[in-house]
User: Which sequence fits this backbone?
């Protein structure tokens, strides 16, 4: 596919005509399956980018954060929002910085400055951010496997394991004391139905942080419940294969960051493996996931845990260097 020819088509005229975008775009890049190298003939083209927001947005007087064109699946973040997300090593944002050179459809001088400093944003946070996204994919995978076959009690145990996985990042993310949260399956009072219960051991803790943790844990239950009911098996199987593929891809990328302090969005080395997963070769005839897939997953997870302890990456983005880059970007932009 000639991406630049596609970009010149009429449906992308908003890039040139919308006053929020034209003359203010820092860079545009291919995203999704085309960026990973897992696209097929029928794959949609996703485009992501960064745009310099208005001064009033920077100052907080107006609230433009991102531009979304649903018809073309294009998402363009303001520089302000992009910097906030990239500081947390957000996987979707990191991927935009490490595309193949030919996948950048447009790069301004300011965009080049941002791309030239991309390694600044690779930190040990990747183990939690990429790992968190991988856990979300794993939850979807386990939900799909569990919803039709398990007893009510086993379903609750499955949901509880997913909640526990979601809570694993809380110690770092919310500066939580060790063993502050315990979840389990049980009855709230004698005679009541079983459900997922939680114990908190917290004192002098911000209510807003507690609410955020509860929202994340209850969202796991909500996500599971949303998958139950009538479903299109063929469509669900295709989605399941994609969840499996992205789960493995995320661990490959996370481990690459921790071990080599760089990452490739285009997964050339693992292309055949990822396509096999996407095409269902790691599913049994009855639909269940093969033991071989789980072995691969466990090996990648164990490697991630090992690299997390061994990596020489900083825990967080260097504040001084980050602030220096932000000031330079906005000074250059406002000249």
Assistant:
């Amino acid at each position: 596919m000639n991406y630049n020819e596609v970009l010149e088509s009429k449906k992308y005229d908003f890039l040139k005509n919308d006053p929020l975008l034209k003359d203010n775009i820092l860079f545009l890049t291919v995203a999704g399956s085309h960026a990973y190298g897992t696209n097929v003939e029928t794959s949609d083209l996703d485009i992501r980018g960064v745009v310099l927001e208005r001064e009033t947005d920077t100052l907080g007087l107006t609230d433009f954060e991102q531009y979304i064109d649903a018809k073309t699946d294009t998402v363009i973040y303001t520089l302000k929002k992009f910097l906030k997300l990239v500081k947390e090593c957000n996987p979707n944002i990191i991927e935009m910085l490490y595309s193949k050179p030919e996948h950048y459809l447009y790069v301004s001088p300011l965009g080049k400055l941002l791309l030239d400093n991309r390694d600044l944003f690779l930190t040990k946070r990747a183990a939690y951010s990429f790992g968190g996204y991988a856990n979300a994919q794993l939850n979807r995978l386990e939900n799909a496997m569990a919803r039709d076959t398990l007893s009510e009690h086993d379903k609750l145990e499955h949901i509880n394991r997913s909640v526990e996985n979601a809570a694993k990042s809380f110690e770092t993310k919310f500066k939580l004391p060790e063993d502050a949260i315990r979840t389990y399956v049980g009855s709230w009072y004698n005679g009541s139905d079983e459900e997922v219960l939680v114990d908190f051991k917290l004192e002098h803790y911000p209510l807003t942080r507690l609410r955020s943790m509860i929202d994340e844990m209850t969202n796991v239950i909500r996500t599971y419940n949303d998958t139950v009911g009538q479903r299109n098996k063929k469509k669900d199987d295709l989605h399941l294969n994609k969840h499996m593929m992205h789960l493995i891809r995320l661990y490959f990328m996370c481990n690459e960051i921790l071990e080599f302090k760089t990452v490739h969005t285009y997964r050339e080395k693992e292309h055949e493996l990822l396509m096999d997963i996407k095409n269902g070769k790691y599913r049994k005839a009855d639909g269940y996931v093969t033991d071989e897939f789980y072995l691969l997953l466990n090996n990648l997870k164990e490697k991630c845990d090992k690299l997390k302890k061994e990596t020489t990456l900083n825990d967080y983005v260097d504040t001084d260097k980050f602030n220096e880059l932000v000031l330079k970007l906005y000074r250059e932009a406002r000249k």
Remarks:
- The longest strand covers residues 25-31.
